[in-house]
Amino acid sequence: MPMAAAEIEELIRAGIPDARVEITDLAGDGDHYAARVVSPMFKGMPRVRQHQAVYAALGGRMGGVLHALQLTTEAPTTEE
Asked: Can you tell me whether residue 16 is helix, strand or coil?
């Protein structure tokens, strides 16, 4: 059974409480999503570590109940 976008957002926010999270259903099938996660904790962190932090927040659901997630992570800029 596919994961709901709201559930993905909740999991990421629970694992990275200061994150701003935007979820987009890419195919309209509830199975292929894009996530943009912006968090101050990512400042100075390599992109791979940022993605690992998001995967950790998802608690092992990647590749299982969450089939595909196009992930964009970044630290906030001064304007944000």
From this structure: coil
Give the integer Cα–Cα distance in Å for 47 and 4.
25
User: How far apart (Å, rounded) are the C-alpha atoms in residues 76 and 80?
Assistant: 6
CB-CB neighbours of 16 under 10 Å: 22
Give the contacts of 31 (CB within 8 A, at least 6 positions apart): 2, 67, 68
pTM score, whole prediction: 0.89
Mean pLDDT of the chain: 91
Beta strands in the chain (DSSP E): 20-25, 32-38, 68-74
Can you say how many angstroms the Cα of residue 24 is from the centroid of all Cα atoms in its chain? 11
3-state secondary structure at position 62: strand
In the chain, how long is the greatest CA-to-CA distance?
Answer: 40
- How many CA atoms, within 13 angstroms, populate the side-chain half-sphere of residue 17? 0
